[in-house]
Structure formats: C-alpha cells, structure tokens
Amino acid sequence: MPLGPASHRVPRATGPSVRPIPTAPSQVRTPADRAAALGRLMRPEPRPGAHKVVVLALDGVYPFELGIPHRVLGSADGRYEVVSASVDGRPVRTDSDLTVTPGQGPEALAEADTVVIPPYSVSRASAAVPDPQALAALSRVRPGTRLVSICTGAFLLAAAGLLDGRRATTHWALTGHFRELFPRVELDADVLFVDHGDVLTSAGAASGVDVCLHLVRRDHGSEVANQVARRCVVPPFREGGQAQYIERPLPPASGTGTGPTRDWALQRLGLPLPLDELAAHAAMSTRTFARRFREETGLSPGRWLTQQRLRRARLLLESSDLPVERVAHEVGFATATSLRRHLATEAGVAPSAYRRTFRASGPVAGVAGEASGAEG
Questions:
Q1: CA–CA separation, 125 vs 140, rounded Å?
Q2: pTM of this prediction?
Q3: Which of 25, 84, 241, 348 is 20 to 30 A from 251, alpha carbon to alpha carbon?
Q4: Half-sphere exposure (CA, 13 Å, Cβ side) for 247?
C-alpha cells in the first residue's frame, strides 16, 4: 500500500536559525554561497509533515549505501525528511577507515514512517547472534511502519523474524549463508529487490538506488521518480525482477551487441516485435540474438519487452486521460485484458486503481484530450 506524506504529524523544528542562503545569481557572491545555493537546489528542505525516513546505521555500516536514502529520497523536492540514527546515539564505525556520527539515537525510529537498514559487515557469528542493541532499536518501530533493507540489512530483519514466510533478497554472494541461518525466509537471490508493500528487501550496492527510486515511484508516481533520477544522474528504472548478476554485462568489442536493437525497439513498442524481427534488425540468428540479449541484460527479449511496455503504460496511466484499451494499444499489448494481467502481476492493482493512485497533476502535452472512456 503506497505511503503518502505523514501529514498528521506536527512539523518538527529544524534546529537553530541560520543565515538565509542566497539563491539569485546576483546574491551568490562567494564560493561558500554558491555551494550552499547548489545544495539547496539539489536537496530542498523537507516540507511540513514530510514522510519521515530514518536510516539505521549499524556497526560496520557501508558508507556508500548509508548515503543512498539521503541522496535519492532527499532529492524528491522535500517530500521526504531523511535522518540517520544509531542504536545508542553514539558514533558508528564503518567498514572503511572512518567513523560517522548519526544525528539521532534509537528514539527516532518510533517516529519513522519508513525505516531503512543499510548494509553492514556480517560474519557467520554476528549474523547468527545479532547485536541485542540493534534488535532493541528495531523493536521501537511502530506497527505499520514501512521497512526497507539494502544488501546485508536483510540479515537484521530476518533475525528479528520480520521476513519469516516472505519472499526476500540480499546480495547474491551471501545466498548460502542466509538460507542456512533463516530457513523460514523464501530467499530469491536472483533479483534486485522484492516489494511486499510494508517490507522491501534489496540486493547490494546500486540496487539500493533502485529500491529507493522504486519507493519514490510508488509513493509519488513516475514523473517525480524520473526527476529524482535525473538529479542523481542514474537510470530512472530497473525492474525489481532483473537479475542481480550478469555474466557478460558488456557487449563484445566488435560492437555487435543488442543495444542498438533495444533502442530501435523502444521507438516501436506499439508494434508486435517478434523475436525473428528483433534478430533480423541485429543481423543475428534468433538463437544467437536471444543468447546475447540475455548475456547483456539478464533478461529474455520477451521479458524485457514486457517490462518496457509496462513502464510506458504506467507513464500513460499517470499522465494522460487515454482509456485503458488505448493505453494497451499504444504500448503493444494485444488487448486491455493483457495489460490488466501484466500490471496486476507487477503492481498488484488494476489499471484504473493505478491511475487513481498515481494520477499526475496534469496530462502530458500531446496526449491530453485525445480520447476518453471507461477504465478497467
């Protein structure tokens, strides 16, 4: 269930007053002023009642992933307030040669709308017997709070029993260790992230960016998520079911990869695009094309096309008044029933429900008013 801004909360104080940061070019006189103005542009102050995200930094936390929620969610025009917390309010040793000092203690978890557990150094012993302070801190989380783990953060959620009976993921290299410790968790080590609505788990490193962008998309729609991705200079969308680990992520040096054909297909999503036509465009046999396509993307051509069509369909549902039948036709699904089935599998909702949840403030130019009709 999407979580919107926690508007019921009284806005929190933001600390002592500071000198206003100039924003007009004529006011930005010093390097410090320019840096401050750029920072405000990239990371606006949280809006009153913004959705509060608490990032729990555990001993041995990975610095890169610790910063992902701040960077991604903090770029959503103040829709989220992102803070870090430690289990005891003290500085935290990272897995690198530095120490970080979160601004909050464990009490912040009781006020969170979303809690993120970034990865931390995990040994066989520490995973089997997690830090009691970490479990105690997690117990402060209110019922209904959304929980998100990145990489080894899933070990803490699993140790707390929060993943029992659920499908979840973590870094592919830790598959055997995780399954041995937590047999009640349905581990899928072949995906980037798994979304259960109230609990999300993701794989290593860059998949933390993917799951945070997914949160923005789920909470506020594709238009906002795309803006955030542009600010962070990252791809706006990688499907959660995409493979974590691809044996050959780069095309051959000869330049005979499938990338140009993928670009060509994206311009023709409304057409059937059978495998033999894709292979012919790439000047390959169907068998060679399918093999090379999977090597480069981790997906079959058919699965990749379905993902791209769903992505385009979601954008049209959010930003236009086109009826579902027309949306299905525009993105290449044979029937509206096919679109409904695929969207229900991916997002768990019908197109009409998706549109009501993520409807943009105004139609995208060029599609408004082209058609209207009943939705399904």
A1: 25
A2: 0.69
A3: 241
A4: 5
For residue range 289-326, what is the model confidence (pLDDT) as tens digits?
A: 999 998 888 789 999 999 899 989 988 998 899 999 99
AA letter at 179? R
Q: What is the average per-residue pLDDT within 139-156?
A: 97
Helix (H, G, I), strand (E, B) or coil at 51: strand
The pLDDT value recorded for residue 289 is 96
Number of neighbours of residue 338 by Cβ within 10 angstroms: 14
Let me know: does 82 contact 53? Beta carbons within 8 Å. yes
For residue 30, pLDDT beyond 80: no
d(CA 203, CA 199): 14
Q: How far is CA 371 from CA 18, 223, 310, 323, 360, in A?
A: 51, 21, 20, 7, 17
Spatial separation of the C-alpha atoms in residues 29 and 222, rounded to whole Å? 37
Question: In the predicted model, is pLDDT for residue 20 greater than 60?
Answer: no
Task: Pick left, alpha or beta for residue 88 (phi over 0 → left; psi -120 to 50 → alpha; otherwise beta).
Answer: alpha
66 near 100, Cβ under 8 Å? yes
> What does the alpha-carbon distance between residue 265 and residue 300 come to, in Å, rounded to a whole number?
14
- The side-by-side arrangement of strands in the sheet containing 193-195 is 80-86, 51-57, 114-117, 146-150, 199-202, 193-195
Measured at the CA of 93, the angle between CA 90 and CA 94, to 5 degrees, comes to 135
Q: Retrieve residue 124's tokens.
A: 């066989």
Percentage of the chain beyond pLDDT 90 is 63
